[in-house]
Amino acid sequence: MVIVTTSHNPSKYQVDRASALAKDLKIPYVNRKELKSADLEQFEYYYVVEKGRITVKFKNTTLFFHPSTAKVRMRNIKNGFKDYLIEALKLNGKELILDTTFGLGSEAILMAAFLSEGKVIGIEASTPIYVVVSHGLKEYRAKEEWVNNAMRKIEVYNDNFRSFIFRQESESFDIVYCDPMFENPVYKSSSMNPLRPFALYETLNEEDIDQMLRVARKKVVLKAHGKDTLFDRIKPDIVMGSRKSGVLYGVIFKR
Ligand SMILES: C[S@@+](CC[C@H](N)C(=O)[O-])C[C@H]1O[C@@H](n2cnc3c(N)ncnc32)[C@H](O)[C@@H]1O
User: Which residues line ligand 1 (CB under 6 A)?
Assistant: First the structure.
């Protein structure tokens, strides 16, 4: 069972939000006062409406929204280092990008920061990840104005990209991006670890790539780990990335 509760000593606003979230998700709202730590262990996972954010908890893992990876990558770019995702995208700033595997939205925020007029549509199949991240995008206020601007250029939907793409007309996005969970997880990636228990693990197949190419006007960009089988099964036109981290980006151009 999955429930919604609040942090301890909640304000009326938190209680109202938690009740509304529970109603939206069609799951029970439970008053925090009525919950003992032992009770919490019986749930599959549970949402906590805290003061300025919504988190989701599973055993010792807490998932919450934070754009820290985007900030680190932007700092590196400003310091003159290559970011292979941004290199692979080659943006003119006006693109409509479909991010089919939104996750924490870190890469979507980075991409959106390079769009002066375009935007990013994000798709996330996992409901708990979607809830945490979609509320985070609306509520999180960064000290860095570029992060706030980038977040405003993103729309995110709770759906499986397969059914979402199936409903889209051909060539309705400039670029389609897909970053499925690696077959070989990088556990030292501390930003990804809280996401793992809630994520969907699905392997991309040729039919997925055909559908992505159908809805793309320019190209499909895929991310994989060097040890994964993805780029053996699906051969991109170009592969770029860092040998050190093993993280690769493959570009398939629309013909
Ligand atoms: C590796 S993470 C993406 C990380 C993301 N690029 C970021 O910067 O935070 C992969 C995400 O895709 C989601 N996912 C996997 N298969 C999916 C599918 N078929 N449709 C939509 N989302 C999917 C997972 O639940 C997970 O959140």
Answer: 100-101, 103-107, 123-126, 129, 160-162, 179-181, 195, 199-200, 202
